[in-house]
Structure formats: structure tokens, C-alpha cells
Amino acid sequence: AAADRAVLVQVKDVPALVKAQGGSTGAIAMSIVPETITAKVYSELASKLASGLKDQNVDADVKVVTAAGYQPAGSSPIWKPIALGGIGTLAFLMVRHFIKRGK
């Protein structure tokens, strides 16, 4: 099951990181071409992470991907409707039981 798992790293505040590491030049570049600078930040992050893992003898693929559709491991979109359906059914049966009891 490990093959369907991955670690997702998302930089929370790219502009702040760029300003902290690139100073005013980074801040200006971020204001002019934010998508390009953001892509560069993620590319550099992936490169450094891959290098660090390799140094620790970890065989890993490090890729920059779009985060859309990713969800925490162990969660499945099917469980939510099933759980809600079960709760609704239980509530219905309890109400039905109390109505019959009251007659």
C-alpha cells in the first residue's frame, strides 16, 4: 500500500520566503512575475529535498506537481456519505422507535 502514498510539501508564504532570501530584488521580481518566481521556489525546494534524501541513501522521486485532488492518507471521499447515511438511518430508526413507543 506504500506505493499509493506520497508526501506533499506546500510552501505557506512564497512571497515572504522570496523576500527573506532574495531581499528587495526578490520582492520586486515576485511583484512582477509571481508565477515564474513561485515555480522557481518549488523547483529549488524539490532539488534540495532530493539532494538531502539522496545524501541519506533514500531512493525517492521528488517532483513538483499540482496539489489539486490530494487528500490526507487514509481518507476516502466515499466514507463521508456512508457515515452521513448511517447517521441519518440511525436517527430515523430512533424516531420511529419512540413514535411507536408513544402509541
How would you characterize this protein structure?
The radius of gyration is 24 Å and the shape is elongated. By secondary structure, it is an all-alpha fold. Helix 1 (about 15-30) crosses helix 2 (about 35-55). About 65% of the residues lie in helices and about 0% in strands. It has three helices and no strands. The longest helix has 24 residues, at about 80-100.
Name a few traits of the molecule.
103 residues; 3 helices; mainly alpha; 63% helix
Note the topology.
Layout: H1 14-32, H2 34-55, H3 79-102
Radius of gyration: 24 Å
Q: What spatial form do the alpha-carbon principal axes imply?
A: elongated
The mean pLDDT is: 79
Distance between the termini: 53 Å
Q: Give the SSE order as H and E letters.
A: HHH
Spans where pLDDT lies below 50 across 5 or more residues: none
Number of helices: 3
What is the gist of this entry?
The chain is mainly α and 103 residues long. The protein is 63% helix and 0% strand.
